């Protein structure tokens, strides 16, 4: 009986419409269902620029100019224009950028280099690799960036350079840094791996891009960075012609004239395919920063005035490009919050759980637990939420609602 009924419907001349409605229904359901939330959604971002990217990649493959092809020069020129800097030296990754920058300056074994203990390991790693002496200082609780007073106290006659890290996407107080550097005759090597595109704003309103203020600046094109390629990549920036020439030689085996090696260098190149991808993504970098800021504003609004959450602050002298959106939690178990969010299919990360002075590799009798109270508090209590260019309001609401549910019922 039932079967004949269905059979009747199916044989009905409306069959065509039923099928059509069914397909339409499935399409709508597919759109209504929320996209799985990612910490960084590279797939959705790629899908929007797929045609341009695919074409550019195929062009490089067909040209077979894989190394130092025209795309590398094109991207370098475009990035110089975007940053308003005289020289961009592309290289293989952000860690190499830092290492090469330090190799290009005349630093000697034992020279002291000041940076923060609340950073990604690469900053400290390259200092140690070059047998320079890392001198660690604490950060400001408001900005997660180097504490200027602590920096001043750390300067000794052996200090040769400062490495300000523009952490999570906002600039360090560069005017103060440059004044201190000038007074003590120090190099400034900016670690702008997380802050490409951010502006430092002077009191008169003039702006400079992160990484272009110190003697040399470094960035990373790691896929999840704000300007990410589809593999590894990095770049060094400088306005100094002489230093630029040296850095160009350092990334190329210390070679100025072909097969004449003037000093010990490294092999650190940006692939042509990556450069072609970056040239396209650079066009969207400012729009990407707007999308990140929109997501950050949503979070800020959702969490404001919550006694258990401190939302990130942006200093008056900088724009923020929100490489990370990082909350400080108060009086809750941060790790339980992370577990709870993960159980709701919300990724959340701890940047960073262990400060540099507490790492086994950088264990140093000069430092002990308790020496850097702000950093140590942050390592215990920060949590970073999904932050990328493709977050929509539904996802942001889902993340915020769940986070608040945990926090408010703690
Ligand atoms: C990512 C990052 C680096 C290193 O960049 P890679 O391209 O991964 O080598 C260095 N410093 C900071 C602050 C970073 O975030």
Structure description:
The protein is an alpha/beta fold. The protein has three domains: 2-32, no CATH class; 46-282, Type I PLP-dependent aspartate aminotransferase-like (Major domain) (Aspartate Aminotransferase, domain 2); 285-408, Aspartate Aminotransferase, domain 1. Helix content is 43%, strand content 14%. It is built from 13 helices and 14 strands. It has helices at residues 2-11, 15-32, 42-63, 70-83, 94-104, 122-129, 148-154, 174-184, 241-250, 272-303, 334-343, 373-381, 393-408, and strands spanning 87-91, 112-116, 133-137, 159-162, 187-191, 199-201, 207-209, 216-220, 234-238, 255-257, 260-261, 309-310, 325-329, 382-385. The strands form four sheets. Strands 1-9-8-5-4-2-3 form a seven-stranded mixed β-sheet, sandwiched between helices. Strand 2, helix 6 and strand 3 form a beta-alpha-beta unit. Helix 3 (42-63) runs antiparallel to helix 10 (272-303), helix 5 (94-104) crosses helix 6 (122-129) and helix 5 packs across helix 9. The longest helix has 32 residues, at 272-303. The chain starts with a helix and ends with a helix. Mean pLDDT is 94; it is low at 1-6. Residues 93-95, 119-120, 122-123, 165, 191, 193-194, 220, 222, 232, 234 line the site of pyridoxal-5'-phosphate.
Compose a concise summary of this entry.
The chain has 13 helices and 14 strands.
């Amino acid at each position: 009986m039932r079967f004949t009924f269905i059979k009747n419907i199916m044989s009905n001349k409306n069959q065509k419409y039923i099928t059509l409605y069914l397909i339409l229904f499935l399409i709508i359901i597919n759109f209504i269902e929320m996209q799985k939330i990612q910490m960084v959604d590279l797939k959705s971002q790629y899908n929007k620029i797929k045609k341009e990217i695919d074409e550019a990649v195929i062009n490089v493959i067909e040209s077979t100019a894989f190394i130092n092809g025209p795309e590398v020069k094109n991207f370098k020129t475009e990035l110089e224009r975007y940053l308003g800097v005289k020289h961009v030296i592309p290289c293989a990754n952000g860690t190499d950028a830092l290492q090469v920058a330090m190799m290009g300056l005349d630093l000697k074994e034992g020279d002291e280099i000041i940076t923060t203990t609340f950073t990604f390991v690469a900053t400290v790693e390259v200092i140690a690799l070059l047998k320079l002496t890392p001198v660690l200082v604490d950060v400001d609780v408001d900005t997660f960036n180097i504490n200027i007073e602590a920096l001043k106290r750390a300067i000794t006659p052996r200090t040769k350079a400062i490495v300000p890290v523009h952490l999570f996407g906002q600039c360090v107080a560069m005017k103060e840094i440059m004044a201190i550097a000038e007074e003590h005759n120090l190099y400034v090597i900016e670690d702008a791996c997380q802050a490409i595109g951010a502006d430092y704003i002077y009191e008169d309103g003039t702006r400079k891009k992160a990484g272009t203020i110190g003697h040399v600046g470094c960035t990373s094109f790691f896929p999840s960075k704000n300007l990410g390629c589809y593999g590894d990549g990095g770049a060094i920036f400088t306005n100094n012609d002489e230093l630029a020439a040296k850095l160009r030689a350092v990334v190329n085996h210390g070679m100025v004239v072909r097969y004449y090696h003037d000093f010990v260098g490294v092999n650190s190149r940006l692939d042509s395919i990556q450069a072609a991808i970056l040239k396209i993504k650079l066009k969207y970098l400012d729009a990407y920063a707007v999308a990140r800021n929109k997501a950050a504003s949503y979070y800020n609004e959702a969490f404001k005035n919550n006694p258990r959450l401190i939302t990130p602050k942006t200093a008056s002298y900088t724009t923020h490009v929100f490489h990370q959106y990082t909350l400080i939690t108060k009086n809750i178990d941060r790790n339980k919050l992370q577990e709870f969010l993960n159980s709701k299919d919300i990724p959340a990360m701890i940047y960073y759980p262990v400060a540099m002075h507490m790492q086994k590799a950088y264990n140093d009798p000069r430092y002990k637990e308790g020496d850097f109270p702000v950093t140590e508090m942050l390592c215990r209590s920060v949590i970073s939420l999904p932050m990328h260019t493709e977050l929509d309001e539904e996802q942001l609401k889902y993340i915020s609602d769940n986070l608040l549910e945990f926090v408010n019922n703690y």
